[in-house]
Amino acid sequence: METGMIISLAAYFIVMLGIGLYAYKQSTSDVSGYMLGGRSLSPGVAALSAGASDMSGWILMGLPGAMFVTGFSSTWIALGLIIGAWLNYFLVAPRLRVYTEKANDSITIPDYFSNRFNDNSNLLRVVSAVVIIVFFTLYTSSGVVAGGKLFESSFGLSYEMGLYITTGVVVLYTLFGGFLAVSLTDFVQGCIMFIALILVPTVTYTLLEQPLTSTLNSINPQMLQWIGAGSLVSIISAMAWGLGYFGQPHIIVRFMSVRSVKDMPTARRIGMSWMIVAALGAVATGLCGAAYAYENGIVVDDPETIFLVLSELLFHPLIAGFLLAAILAAIMSTISSQLLVSSSSLTEDFYKTFIRRDATDKELVLVGRISVALVAICAIYLAYDRDSSILDLVSNAWAGFGAAFGPLVLFSLYWKRMNFEGALAGMVVGAVTVLVWFYAPIEVNGEHISKLIYGIVPGFILSSIAIVAVSLTTAAPSEKITLLFDDVEKSL
């Protein structure tokens, strides 16, 4: 590896660990500070933290890889995500910030569900925590896979060593710095990703010998088709990724941490500007990368590494090291967020609820740190499958959260008549539908149902129907719940 690349990456690792040390000294003395940063994030930090934790390794590897293979038909994924993210900021962010504080200062999503519906049985808390831990372990493994591929492809290390290095650094700063460390590192990582996703496609485009569309047509005329080899259903499936935003715990928890609901418009403007540039940059990287590789006879064995290939071929080692750091930033920002949310659920929703109700803050922070390490170990185990597709792993987990929590979050914030039974039914129906859709051996005309339409579509629809039907056919929510709803409405 070139000395310049080593210097850039070493500087990046030092900065990340330094932020973790700073956050350790600032905010980890109590459980609220460790899990939610004391609800004190500025809109800029919260917005870039949400964006960086959302746009994981798939924005620099998974999506460019899909564009590299299929062409314009994968652009619908980016468009759906942009629309979904904007709606998330507009519909969910302000209300969730107010509701979680008024609902007994809820600091986790399961905590919010439990307090929102006055669930004395803790059933909502447990089921939602199980959903979080199951899907986040799968989701986290996608980031670990991306790290393994990065170190194997660029640094000549073994895939397994890449898994350990990636996870090890993330665990260190998450373990000690908690939510503040995750948010501050996300901010820095978001800035790095922003620059990289402008620089790589721009330079690649300027080096093309022929017009981009001409070269893509020479590779395969199908790459210029917006619908691709499928149909209108394929467009719906791609854009349905946007539905997932409403139910992603590692993203919406950022809304809960903003210092004031008045900061939400600023956070939305910053977050959406960042995301639009990042998504377009990822799309352009895949398309321009495919054209450049074709024109120069470059064989790309794994399409999901096209960003890596371009970084090493086109840039000075110092800059290439910075660009590779951008991939690490994308990977680590999401892994750290997911580890912390999973840790929060294990700590607040299992340990404190069922094992030690009177646990001190110091004890809960310790349990949270142990939980971070345990989830990381499970993610590494799942990532040992070298052939895992980053985009496939992300799509399954994204659909699971979107269907299980998306309708539940939206209805809980806007529909006063929704009750505990409806919430539980919607969550279970959404999660089970996605699991069946992806993993049950069901085929239609010789093709697995997951290939026909993205699993979040039936999951989201059936979850919404379950919430409405069960809520209307069971007892109305208690006066305490409706008064809390009214209080939130007056505060907005």
TrEMBL record:
Record keyword Transport present: yes
Q: How does it sit in the membrane?
A: Multi-pass membrane protein
UniProt cross-references to InterPro entries, sorted A to Z: Na/Glc_symporter_sf, Na/Pro_symporter, Na/solute_symporter, Na/solute_symporter_CS, Sodium:Solute_Symporter
The organism of origin for this protein: Pseudoalteromonas neustonica
What CDD domains does this protein map onto?
Answer: SLC5sbd_PutP
Note the Pfam families from the entry.
SSF
Localization: Cell inner membrane; Cell membrane
User: Reaction(s) catalyzed by this protein?
Assistant: L-proline(in) + Na(+)(in) = L-proline(out) + Na(+)(out)
Primary localization: membrane
TM spans (from-to): 6-24, 75-92, 123-141, 161-184, 191-208, 223-246, 272-294, 314-335, 364-384, 396-415, 422-440, 452-472
**Role this protein plays:** Catalyzes the sodium-dependent uptake of extracellular L-proline.
**What's this protein's name?**
Sodium/proline symporter
> Which keywords accompany this UniProt record?
Amino-acid transport, Cell inner membrane, Cell membrane, Ion transport, Membrane, Sodium, Sodium transport, Symport, Transmembrane, Transmembrane helix, Transport
Q: Which family does it belong to?
A: Belongs to the sodium:solute symporter (SSF) (TC 2.A.21) family.
Gene symbol of the encoding locus: putP
